[in-house]
Structure formats: C-alpha cells, structure tokens
Amino acid sequence: MIFKELIKKSIILTFIVFFFSCYSKVINEKERHLNRKWMLVEMDSIPSEILIKNNAYIDMTIKKGEASAYLGCNKFSFSYRLKNSNTFSTTNIISTKMFCKETIEIEEIFIKLISKVNSFNTTKAHQLELFINGEKKMRFVAADWD
After folding, report:
1. Distance of CA 98 to CAs 29, 41, 71, 75, 118, Å?
2. Residue 127 pairs with which residues in a beta bridge?
3. pLDDT tens, 1-32?
4. For the segment 62-111, what is each residue's pLDDT rounded down to a tens digit?
5. CB–CB of 91/109 below 8 Å?
6. In Å, how far are 40, 53, 63 from 133, measured between CA atoms?
C-alpha cells in the first residue's frame, strides 16, 4: 500500500516538473525572439510614413526585461514582463524631457499605449504586434530583417 502511494506521488511529481519545464521553455523561446531591435511601422492613428521618417523603434536587447524606445525626439526606457506565452506588461516608463513640437503627439500616444499593452504576437515572420484587450495597437518589424 505504501509502495503504491509512493509510486503515485512520484508520477504526479514527475508530471508537474515536466509541465513547468516545458512552460518555461515556451516563455524563454518568446524572450529570445523578442530580444532584438524592432522598428515601429504602425501605431494607432499615426501614419506609417511619419514613424518611418522618425526612425521610431523599441530596442529589447538591453537586458532581460528591459527595453528602450525612440520616436523622433525623446528616449524612453521601461521594464516589461512576460507572464505566459503571449501576456505582456510594462512598468517603470521613463523618458527624457526635451520639447519637440513635431513629435510630442506621437510620444504621448506611445506612452499611453505602451503602458496599457497586455498581450503580444510574434507569429508573423519578423514582426511584433502589441495588443490592448485583443485590439492591435502597434506593429513592429525586426530591424535586422531585409
């Protein structure tokens, strides 16, 4: 009887360890894929031409869980966290405080959106999409992609 209980507990423990090790591999794979510089090509109502002209980007190569961004004037920095395979959140958003009349609206929209992003998608080759409650708000293309 004790032997059967021991085997049963061993099987359950093995299953739990296996499940969580596979789960962390999914997140690690997503983190590796995110670890690059992403050029911002779509954001809410801002025309793509302006984003491309301003060389707008997010750089996620800094350090695990940290990113920087640029939209044409100020530099931004924030922390991000992956909670599961597609859940994404940001905290500690800071920026330089230069006044640039031509980019202030773009930067304000970016801060508003990036602080509310709660999921992402990288299923399309070399693309990163950020969502708020299932609605796509930003699309990026990998900077190292031709």
Report:
1. 37, 23, 12, 9, 28
2. 141
3. 676 665 666 666 565 555 554 444 444 666 67
4. 888 999 999 999 999 999 998 877 888 999 999 999 999 999 999 999 99
5. no
6. 20, 29, 27
Chain-centroid distance, C-alpha 92: 14
CA angle 67, 132, 50 (to 5 degrees): 65
Pairing between β-strand 75-82 and β-strand 88-95 as defined by DSSP bridges = antiparallel
Cα gap 19→36, rounded to integer Å: 28
Phi/psi for 21 (5° steps) reads -70, -35
Q: In what order do the strands lie in the sheet with 88-95?
A: 88-95, 75-82, 66-70, 57-63, 37-43, 135-142, 127-132, 119-121
The DSSP code sequence of 6-55 is HHHHHHHHHHHHHHHHHHHHHHHHHHHHH-SEEEEEEETTB-HHHHHHTT
- Residue 110's CB: how many other CB atoms inside 10 A? 27
Q: Quick one: which H or E segment has residue 136?
A: strand 135-142
